[in-house]
């Protein structure tokens, strides 16, 4: 069982509760048997409750980064549900007492998400992160073009073998990224810039999207570079990683921003704006950060200017 997947179900819970209305879980007698009837759609409520209680009991210092996860855990700690869920009483014999307390907890959870100003402000701050990062990334790309007349752009998606995903930890993923980036900077002297983003999905769990910017005056073969970077990732992860070389499949892009881009190539530089997907807030990766905050977006430092010599560029045809 991947606990992170059940944590992500909490993100779906407010919409599910709002759709079905109160009460959310009821006890029914069917043919002499007492059973639960849970009305939360594809949100696996009881599994979510079990995992949440397990996390609370194992970690005294939980620091969830997503406001919704933080609220859910905080409210549960203030009830008797932690003890009752841990005892397993609701699984053994459904009862009205547990149902009443559970419904009351869920009602309060939904009410706060719908009406609390401070909570709504916390959610709004997530979208503001996207705005700040998007502006920062665009300035970064413009600064690279101001230093180099041509850039060779390579995009690689890095992930792990599916058989590894359930046991994959955030610490392992961060260590692999840092080792990979150090090795790439040493191996590729023409690598002048890069941006990376960490995401989490139920299919691939932890994975990275990375965009590499090489000095276009020094290198040409973007597909080959993409393959070499992918092989480097396999080496760093000792064969437990996988990768997708986006430059080897450029035809799928209606506006392709991969490969060689000239400073004055307006069309390709506009297409490069698609790379802003790297700065879009991924709520999943924020949600699974339960023990503190980690970086989910980063970039390489801009190279220092070595000379101001050369013919000044005319900016009339540039973004």
Topology, please?
Blueprint: H1 3-20, E1 25-30, E2 33-38, H2 45-58, H3 67-77, H4 81-87, H5 89-92, H6 96-115, H7 117-147, E3 150-160, H8 170-187, E4 191-201, E5 205-215, H9 222-236, E6 241-245, E7 259-262, H10 266-271, H11 283-287, E8 297-299
Structure description:
It contains 11 helices and 8 strands. By secondary structure, it is α+β, with helices and mostly antiparallel strands. The strands form 2 sheets. Strands 3, 4, 5, 6, 7 and 8 form a 6-stranded antiparallel β-sheet that branches. A hairpin with a 2-residue loop joins β1 (about 25-30) and β2 (about 35-40). The protein is elongated and about 75 Å long.
Structural class, please?
Answer: alpha+beta
N to C succession of SSEs: HEEHHHHHHEHEEHEEHHE
Number of helices: 11
Low-confidence stretches: 308-312, 314-319
Tell me about the largest β-sheet.
Answer: 6 strands, antiparallel
How far is the N terminus from the C terminus?
A: 49 Å
Percent of residues in helices comes to: 40-55%
By DSSP, the count of extended strands is 8
Strand content: 15-25%
Gyration radius from CA atoms, angstroms? 24 Å
Mean pLDDT: 90
The gross shape turns out to be elongated
């Amino acid at each position: 069982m991947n606990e992170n997947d059940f944590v992500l179900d909490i993100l779906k819970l407010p919409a599910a509760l709002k759709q079905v209305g109160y009460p959310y879980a009821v006890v029914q007698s069917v043919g002499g048997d007492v059973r639960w009837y849970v009305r939360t759609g594809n949100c696996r409520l009881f599994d979510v409750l079990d995992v949440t209680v397990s996390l609370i009991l194992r970690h005294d210092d939980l620091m969830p980064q997503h406001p919704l996860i933080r609220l859910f855990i905080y409210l549960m700690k203030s009830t008797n549900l932690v003890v009752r869920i841990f005892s397993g009483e609701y699984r053994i014999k459904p009862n009205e007492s547990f149902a009443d307390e559970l419904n009351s907890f869920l009602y309060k959870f939904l009410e706060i998400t719908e009406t609390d100003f401070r909570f709504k402000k916390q959610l709004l701050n997530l979208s503001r992160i996207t705005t700040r990062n998007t502006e920062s990334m665009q300035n970064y790309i413009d600064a690279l073009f101001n230093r180099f007349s041509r850039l060779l752009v390579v995009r690689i998606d890095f992930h792990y073998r599916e058989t590894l995903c359930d046991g994959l930890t955030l610490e392992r993923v961060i260590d692999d990224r840092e080792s990979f980036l150090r090795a790439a900077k040493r191996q590729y002297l023409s690598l002048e810039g890069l941006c990376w983003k960490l995401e989490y999905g139920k299919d691939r769990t932890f994975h990275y999207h990375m965009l590499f910017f090489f000095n276009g005056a020094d290198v040409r073969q973007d597909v080959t570079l993409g393959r070499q970077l992918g092989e480097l990732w396999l080496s760093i992860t000792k064969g437990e990683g996988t990768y997708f070389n986006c430059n080897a499949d450029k035809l799928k892009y209606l506006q392709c921003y991969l490969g060689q881009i000239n400073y004055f190539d307006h069309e390709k530089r506009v297409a490069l704006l698609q790379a802003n997907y790297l700065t879009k807030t991924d709520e999943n990766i924020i949600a699974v950060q339960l023990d503190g905050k980690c970086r989910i977006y980063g970039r390489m430092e801009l190279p220092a200017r070595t000379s101001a010599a050369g013919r000044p560029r005319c900016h009339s045809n540039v973004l």
